[in-house]
């Protein structure tokens, strides 16, 4: 059924990779933003009926405060495309960005999704089992706000001690700006178990990893209503078309972790990426790649490094991995989304820079690469 909704978007973004070196790759090499420059790359692995909503947004012009906003990995069925992340609504009301504004935006998004689940319940009961991680970054007035649900991750690269024969400290060091809400992390697993002392099976080890109720690895998300609202799980319609999951109370939440930090001249860039990247690259390796290479196409370079590691783990050549089609590709790596945000302090403070027109970029529903002349990937 969802395929019917997908076709118009495939038409809009093209019908295939053509002669591209990797037909599942989409990227923006380098563009300006309010605080510097950015690079984006996305590679698809799943046979997707989902929309990857990776956006790069400036503040609406009617407001005096200029900022940079990044979203990663908000994926919903294409049949629900009218869901939007309503941050601007609350920024307009408050006149500024804050942790409270961000929390309101997450809550409003969840509320809107729940409303649509209820609306489509009879025709699409599967929607109650749809969910997504979400990573949000906002840079405003020399402050950075990072909020996340799930296991997408933001890592800041900042200047370290200069590398030399005498001093072996790294020239760039990573600083993680988000929490991985994944029960594979012992701290998160204990957090979930502590909330459910009467449920010995709230987290179980199955199919090689820890999962909540044997189903899901993340402990926080947008959607996944059947794991938050027992009334959906108990509904006979849902049990018929999906599966029953015995719940005494919600087992995952929608409350994001929010991190706020003042930016300094030592802060060079931030990598926002879905878990597909971090499955194969450490924080240290990722910031080193960004630091040691030209800006243009740096997100694409990170994707390539992750894919090379994925191929190595399967004892195969990277060139052969690129030939594998979506769907089958998922056996080798997950979808990967990377956005690298450069912080150009040398051009002046982040809140005194001249205004720019801004960009609003969204990746295609399905990745049909427009980069047929690529040779380095």
UniProtKB/TrEMBL annotation:
Protein name from the UniProt record: PPM-type phosphatase domain-containing protein
PROSITE patterns: PPM_2
Domain PPM-type phosphatase residues, every copy: 1-343
UniProt-listed PANTHER family: PROTEIN PHOSPHATASE
Molecular function GO terms recorded: protein serine/threonine phosphatase activity
Signal sequence bounds: none
SMART domains in UniProt: PP2Cc (SM00332)
InterPro entries with a match to the protein in the record: PP2C (IPR015655), PPM-type-like_dom_sf (IPR036457), PPM-type_phosphatase-like_dom (IPR001932)
């Amino acid at each position: 059924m969802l395929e019917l909704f997908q076709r118009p978007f495939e038409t809009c973004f093209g019908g295939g990779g053509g002669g591209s070196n990797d037909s599942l790759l989409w990227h923006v090499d380098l563009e300006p933003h309010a605080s510097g420059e950015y690079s984006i790359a996305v590679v698809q692995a799943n046979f997707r009926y989902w929309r990857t909503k990776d956006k790069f947004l400036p503040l609406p012009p009617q407001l005096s405060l200029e900022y940079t906003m990044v979203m990663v990995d908000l994926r919903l069925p294409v049949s629900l495309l009218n869901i939007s992340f309503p941050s601007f609504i609350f920024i307009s009301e408050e006149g500024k960005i804050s942790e409270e504004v961000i929390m309101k935006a997450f809550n409003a998004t969840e509320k809107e999704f729940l409303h649509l689940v209820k609306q489509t319940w009879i025709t699409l009961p599967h929607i109650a089992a749809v969910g997504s991680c979400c990573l949000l970054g906002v840079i405003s007035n020399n402050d950075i706000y990072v909020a996340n649900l799930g296991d997408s991750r933001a890592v800041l690269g900042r200047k370290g001690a200069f590398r030399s024969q005498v001093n072996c400290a790294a020239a760039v060091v990573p600083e993680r700006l988000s929490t991985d809400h994944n029960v594979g992390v012992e701290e998160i697993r204990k957090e979930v178990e502590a909330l459910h002392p009467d449920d010995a099976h709230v987290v179980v080890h199955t199919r090689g990893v820890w999962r909540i109720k044997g189903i899901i690895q993340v402990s926080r998300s947008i959607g996944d209503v059947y794991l938050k609202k027992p009334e959906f799980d108990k509904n006979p319609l849902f049990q018929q078309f999906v599966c029953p999951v015995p719940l005494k109370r919600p087992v995952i939440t929608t409350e994001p972790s929010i991190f706020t930090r003042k930016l300094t001249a030592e802060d060079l860039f931030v990598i926002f990426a879905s878990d597909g990247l971090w499955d194969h690259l450490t924080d240290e390796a990722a910031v080193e790649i960004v630091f040691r290479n030209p800006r243009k196409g740096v997100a694409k370079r990170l994707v390539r490094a992750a894919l090379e590691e994925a191929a190595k783990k399967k004892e195969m050549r990277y060139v052969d991995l690129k030939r594998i089609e979506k769907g089958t590709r998922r056996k080798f790596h997950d979808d990967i989304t990377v956005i690298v945000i450069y912080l150009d302090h040398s051009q002046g403070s982040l809140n005194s820079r001249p205004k720019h027109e801004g960009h609003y970029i969204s990746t295609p529903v399905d990745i049909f690469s427009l980069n047929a002349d690529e040779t380095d990937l």
